[in-house]
Write a structure and sequence with these properties.
CATH class: Alpha Beta
Number of domains: 1
Order of helices and strands: HEEEHEEH
CATH superfamily: HIT-like
CATH topology: HIT family, subunit A
CATH architecture: 2-Layer Sandwich
Structural class: alpha+beta
Largest sheet: 5 strands, antiparallel
Strand order of the largest sheet: 1-2-3-5-4
Strand content: 15-25%
């Protein structure tokens, strides 16, 4: 862990978050500044600045988990689609230097000009409400497929 990394501080419990999923290696949290309702981040607990530093087996596990969480996010939000994104380095617009995958629900008409919808600041209540729906769907997935 990096003591100056906001995600490491969240993982260690020093900063709060709205959690969707956690196991021994990964955590999924609600983005405090979502592009759309349900915007979720999936990240490894071990600190890696970019994907290139991660062992390929961990990258595979990260993306396997992200796909499962994406299904729950889309279902919980009623989204028409979603974007999955992962930025590496400041040139690629990586804001937090800790590997994380963005799951951004998309809705018909949310970008009539073809641009990303603007980020907002979400209330903890709004984040918690959607997080509970996502968690409930992940529990159903876990029970039906030995996920975990």
């Amino acid at each position: 862990m990096s003591k100056h990394c906001i995600f490491c501080s969240i993982i260690s419990g020093d900063l709060p978050c709205i959690e969707v999923f956690q196991d021994k290696d990964f955590i999924a949290i609600m983005d405090k500044y979502p592009i759309s309702r349900g915007h979720t981040l999936v990240l490894p607990k071990k600190h890696y600045v970019t994907l290139l530093q991660m062992p390929s087996t961990e990258v595979g596990r990260l993306y396997s988990l992200a796909s499962v969480i994406a299904k729950a996010v889309v279902s919980a939000t009623g989204a028409d689609g979603f974007n999955m994104g992962q930025n590496n380095g400041t040139s690629a617009n990586q804001i937090v230097p800790h590997v994380h995958v963005h799951l951004v629900p998309r809705f018909k008409g949310d970008s009539p000009d073809g641009r990303w919808p603007a980020r907002t600041v979400a209330s903890n209540e709004a984040l918690d409400s959607i997080a509970q729906k996502i968690k409930g769907l992940l529990e159903i997935t876990e029970q039906n497929s030995n996920f975990g």
